[in-house]
Design goal:
This protein is mainly α. It is built from two helices and no strands. The chain has a domain of 42 residues. Helix 1 crosses helix 2. The chain is 95% helix and 0% strand.
Length: 63
């Protein structure tokens, strides 16, 4: 019960901080978006590499 109240108070304080400093919130969102885009690019590159390795392995076995 006390933990829930403390978490609620911390979230309200965090919300108030972001309302008072909208630039900080925008920077936080931009950082998150950039990080997500880089992660997606990395994952797609890895899957392409894995696909290439699988194709080469299959072609080696069929030859």
């Amino acid at each position: 019960m006390i933990k829930k109240i403390l978490i609620a108070v911390l979230l309200i304080l965090l919300l108030l901080f972001f309302i008072e400093n909208p630039d900080t919130f925008k920077k936080f969102l931009n950082f998150s978006e950039d990080k997500i885009e880089k992660s997606i690019d990395t994952l797609s590159n890895k899957s392409i590499t894995n696909q290439t390795i699988e194709n080469k392995t299959i072609s080696n076995f069929t030859v």
